[in-house]
Request: fold
Amino acid sequence: MDEITLLVVQRAVAGERAAMEQVMRALERPFFNLALRMLLLPAEAEDATQECLLRVATRLAQFEGGSRFSTWAWKVAVNRILELKRKPFLTLEQFSADLADGLELEARERTEDLVSLGELKMGCGRALLQCLEVDDRIAFIVGEIMELEGPEAAEILGIPPATFRKRLSRARERLREALSANCGVVNAAAPCRCHRRLARATVLGRVAPGVASTDAPLDVVALRQKLSRIGEAVRVAAYYRADPTSKPRRDLVLAALQPFTSTRSN
Reply:
């Protein structure tokens, strides 16, 4: 997230639309990727992002500069998303069974499927996150994917650092076990490969052939090679951090700016 200065915040609070838009633009994609990892469905993530942006905008005067703006903004967004109370929608056992359903063992890995394979890997990883309890899921996203330091992550989540570390450790271990048992990107001995799953995922509407949700596609082959060269203890983090940031399908900032009618320029 691009850091926003106190001066820009003060200008936005004073009613300067350009400053408010600068704040919203800096937050839109980071908030959307947080929501997408927590909620899975893009439409729900977009709605949640818009609500987070509105909440930041209406509470902006409460930011006094005592901490980094990003820390304050993340806390606002996390609190709103946690209010949605999305519970696990699958057990890890059900998730594994879903992966095995329709797996085409004879399918070939084709270069023309690069975009679709990357989209499938990213969607699969986000779906796996939904198997975690909400508290563990948000701890993993904030601490491992967003790479926020323990004290800052604990502050954002409103919990003691020791509690954050416990939740993060529990999430890491559950994801490590699940990925090692199922995912060929992480473990060469695992049965599932993105290209073996692609046809079934396309039929189910989980992947739109050739349609990218990111500015640059994720190269699954390169990621698999990279993970094979690093230790097992850090593969889960590398697996998730490799994902490019996803972009919402509509402009969420324009909707969030509608209540603010000032047109003063810089």
